[in-house]
Amino acid sequence: MKKAILWLILLLTVAALCVILFMPGPRFKDVIPDLPALQDLPDLPGNTEPPHAEIELIGDKEVVLEYGQDYTDPGAEAWLVSADGSRQPLAIEPSAVDTRKLGTAEVSYSVIIDGEKVAGVSRTVTVQDTVPPELTLLGEPGDPDYSALDNADGDITDRVQRTEEADRIVYTVRDSSGNEASAERVKGPILEFEGGESVQIPADYRFFEPGVTAVDMYGRDLSDRLEVTGEIVPWEPGSYEFTYTVTDDFGQTVTRTRTIEVVPAEMPETVLQEKVIYLTFDDGPAETTEALLDMLAKYDAKVTFFVTYSDPRYVDMIGRAYREGHSIGLHAYKHDASVIYASEEAYFDNFDKMQEVIKEQTGEYTRIVRFVGGSSNSSSAAFCPGIMTALAEDLTTMGYRYYDWNIQPEPDDENVDLDRSFVTLRYGAYEYCEAGEEPPISLQHDTAGWNVFVVERLIQWGLENGYTFKGIDMTTPEVHHPISN
Ligand code: ZN
User: What percent of the chain is modeled with pLDDT above 70?
Assistant: First the structure.
């Protein structure tokens, strides 16, 4: 019996659960009667909105502009909406925004009907200045020695703060928007080295300053007041120290040192050219140089002049020869072995003077050289033993080429023999070109006028036989004699 009651309770519980879980709930559409669709409602008064205005902003609600920036406010759009929903656009006048006024302004648009504002929108426009003023330090001392100009505030020179520190003067200025600019002057002269405090220069016959500038705190040039101390042998590779000192108008002195390292100069490659004859003329220019140049021009033949300053009356022939395509080499300023071979210093002093003459005539320094007496001369030993050995090495280190000769068509005595000279020249030119080991290079003198006839015959023979007459340049292989001193 007890068991039966328990079964009944269980059965009832399951049934109840089924009713709860599966019984359909109340459905609203069953409960609430069907409503007519909105559009089916009769047109009753009060069911539609009355005519009204609508307004909408075009663009962003907040705009940030830079001072002076071009800006046109995009404005707003407005409509009048009728009772039947039709929309009629309303004209809204665009507002101007003055971007030359710093700060935030509100731009408002309203629709006013019958004197009453019926709709409105607005935006904020902020004009800001983030550009710092321009602070300029002026080149001359004085009060004030600066100026400041701002894009928004205009001339604000009177707002510049000048602060003196131990080694400098600092200038600062701030515009009304808080933008700051500053500048400073270093007190005392400023020494600047081109290439830095340690610089390399190629070996040369004199010291070419690698570049130094000195200005005072106002930027005024003090170069002519520079005092430079230091010893250098410009043709001798090595490290040299120089000290530069300069004092300005205010009695302030600056001293700086620089290390100058002299290094061997670079030398271009040489090229042995086929069937090219190099005629060279020493000791000119002289009275007879002009006739030689006239003759060479007829054949467009080029030669080399190893020039001197022996007769300044004809110095302009160096310029003419150069302009007509001939090569200009350096021989001597003063053609006197006892002077130029006294020492390396004496030789390069003479060299320097001749380089300046050449530069004046041609616009450039030359890098080709012929020693007075040739590199094999022994007479120099009387003035300075070993000088030719030293000079030959110096020139090579300096990136210059020196040329001796392998054809000597002029007689040693005064007995001029045109035929013998021509034959010597022709034979030498032919032999050296055939051998192909070194270029044929003659030794002649434009101080000897008769050379014109010999050279003209040689040129005629050479041109008929496929030879070319050229001036020596840095790619011409050197012809050297054995050095005897
Ligand atoms: Zn000479």
Answer: 89
With bands split at pLDDT 50, 70 and 90, how would you rate the model's confidence at 27? very low
Dist. CA 32–CA 211, nearest whole Å: 103
> Which two tokens mark 93?
């006048």
> What is the model's pLDDT at position 26?
45
121, two tokens: 């929108």
- Name 255's bridge partners: 245
**190-263, what's its fold?**
Immunoglobulin-like (2.60.40)
According to the model, what pLDDT value does residue 113 have? 81
Domain 52-128 indexed as CATH 2.60.40.10 = yes
Pick 346 or 112 by higher pLDDT. 346
For residue 83, how far is its CA from the centre of ligand 1 (angstroms)?
118
Stretch 88-109: mean pLDDT: 87
How many Å lie between the centroid of ligand 1 and the Cα of residue 282?
5
CA–CA separation, 467 and 81 (whole Å): 104
How far, in Å, from the CA of 441 to the mean position of ligand 1?
Answer: 15
One of 2.60.40.10, 2.160.10.10, 2.40.50.100, 1.25.40.80 is the CATH number of 134-186, namely 2.60.40.10
